[in-house]
Amino acid sequence: MATSQTWLLRPFQERSTQVFLGVLFAALVVVTFLHLYMPEDSALHVSAYTVTLLGKYLCYALLAVAVDLVWGYLGILSLGHGAFFALGGYAMGMYLMRQIGDRGVYGDPVLPDFMVFLNWQELPWYWQGFDMAWFAFIMVLLAPGLLALVFGFLAFRSRVTGVYLSIITQALTFALMLAFFRNEMGFGGNNGLTDFKDILGFNLRSDATRLGLFLATGIALAVGYVVCRAIVTSKLGRVSVACRDAEARTRFLGYRVERVQLFVFVVSAMLAGVAGALYVPQVGIINPSEFSPLFSIEIVVWVALGGRATLYGAVIGALLVNYAKTVFTGIMPDAWLFALGALFVLVTVFLPKGIAGLLQKRRQKDDDQPGAQEATA
Amino acid sequence: MSIFEQLTNRDQVFDFLTPVASPVDVRHGPILYMEGVSVSFDGFKAINNLNLTIDDGELRCIIGPNGAGKTTMMDIITGKTRPDTGSVWFGSRHNLLRMNEPDIATLGIGRKFQKPTVFEALTVFENLELAMAADKRILPTLTAIMTAEYRDRIDEILEMIGLQALRDKPAGILSHGQKQWLEIGMLLMQKPRLLLVDEPVAGMTEQEMERTAELLTSLAGKQSVVVVEHDMGFVRSIARKVTVLHQGSVLAEGTMDQVSNDPDVIKVYLGEEA
Q1: Mutant choice from A1, A227, A235 vs B, greatest count of B C-beta within 10 A
Q2: What is the pTM of this model?
């Protein structure tokens, strides 16, 4: 057990983190290589379309890690993490909208197209500052973080837990969806924000920018994973597990359970926001459907499939389910939801610990011979 | 000597800089003082004008039939339940009714639940690590480092509760009795001034009970211990002073012999058992 290290460096001493980072970076390098150096007619060539698709999967993987942090380690089943993802996405979308400048359909130098269309005369106060990248990027963290802070403070202070908390997180994302659908909110109503041109001066339609975004997402996933891993391997991580399993006992040991929950919840919301922010420039649109309760439930399914409380399981789950979704919706679009439901039922019945549980069982079998000596020693 | 010299004298340590080892004021004797405490749930008086004083370093047993209010009393002391009337003081300085659970725990009141409650997913060692007296705010917990000193303290307690061999096993695999001990060990890691122990020998074998009795009696003196127990044999083996609760108030108090000869007590409780 690696215990005598600074908390942020601790994950790097773990085998699972080393393997995870190794595989992730190898995948990034291979995709980059195949995209740049394989001739276009080669079977091994990775098209810009595929690169962006993979980038989207990685955003989902980061989102799944964020959900696993609160669900797996803290026992808070959030059915509203899509809200934090979408808020991060909207913060990024607002920046991208302001970057369009006078190249919009109506050619207004300041107002985005939908505002001109609605006959708005000037930019609402909450759109101020989003023309600056640094401000927008801070808001990507701050907007979901603040929402989580206020929501979590109220919920955890009143000791709302379990199913009730799940239901109000669901209500939260549903309420936000309805709010963002309204044109008066000033976020583009049900069309959302789209028609983006460039990010930090790079053209969003160019292949190089797409590759750059894919790599940035990969790095964000790596950083997010390490941060989560650092939290769960710290004493605070063990306190989280303690809160999950025996809340009253933890309280009588002198820990402020509601603060532990709040801290982890806010970190998780921020990570979800980052995932959303990286998602928007790659798919080119953000609209209120990202707030839909169904999406938030889907995230939970990814995590359950991959295996809770491992973090890498969440990544595996997100990638597999979304790959399956791409394939299935291509072949027979109507069957996808049935397939997802069937997958969920099968995994719950036969693999209660998800795919990660299967991997762990395998490894334990391998370890059995040397492990037996250790146990008797 | 001028004031400047006084202030710059490097040999001197100012009072406010030295950590207060125990802020609990027990100069007047009692470590726990409950007076006129009443609490009712939906009209049912769980605690009815309860008066109880525990001296510093005392080992006290509390007995009483089911529903006598033993667990509710512990809930009040640890801040889980607020009484309708009455006052509860820890030492002569701290009003427990104004504090919440973590504050009370940090102040030095440890509690063992009736049903053994340990963190089953964590190892025995980690269970003790979490219980250890330390700065329990968020950031210090996040950056906490396991030092050799801490490790020694945990190993010391592990030896005391006899679970060294199971150090790195998840607490979920422990037997019922072992969980009880682990929980007592967790209380000790907190370095409490007052231990509230709810039914420590429930589900234990004879030998386990004997060891628990030894452990608890060895603690008294250094810490104050309040034991709530049903098992009369066990109470007899450890108790110096026994309090009998009945319908939310104190029925009798004294040595085991005095109490078991008390006609009121015989009538309501000990009748056939003693």
Answers
A1: A235
A2: 0.88
